[in-house]
What we know:
By secondary structure, this protein is α+β, with helices and mostly antiparallel strands. 17% of the residues lie in helices and 32% in strands. The strands form four sheets. Strands 5, 6, 7, 11, 12 and 13 form a six-stranded antiparallel beta sheet that branches.
Amino acid sequence: MKRRAVFVPIILLIGVLLSGCGLLTLTSQRMQVALEPTGNLGYTVDTSGVITIQQNAIRFRNSAGANGVYLTGFQIAYFDSAGNEQSPSVVGNLPEQTMSLFVPPGIQCAEPDAVRGCTILSDGAVIAPGPEVVTTETYMLLTGGIAERHIDEAVVTGYFPTDWYAEITFVGMTNDGQPFETQPYKLWISPPS
């Protein structure tokens, strides 16, 4: 029994040390993502019918214990009320988009490293949600073709659908050099304002 009691703390210590070296992630790689200025994809239509797509900055934050991530791009797909994927159309197509952003790890410390942020071995390290970062550029995450189809459905049904959505997946590398891909995040498409 004593042997087991000593063995468990040793295994936990090894896990903590390996995570500090970037060899083990303490939690699943879950990142919080939000859009600014609103949490939805939006567009407006003026009185002459011109569609203007809202541009969004993207806010990220790693969960407690997650590795830091260098985001290099994202992919986006659009879906109607029934969950059918909608082609973004030839005009305004959104292939994989590029970005360059470091999302610090889910570890906080007294003095983060300028490149890697905090590690479990940093002075005063605490496993906690990482600091929030926001893209400096904005992205047009909705295409004109999808906005037009959204409007077309409103003409047919008599109201704007509120259950159309996009799924966005971010890709990159963890701070220890491993390929990284998020699960798809659901972004609602708002009726025009």
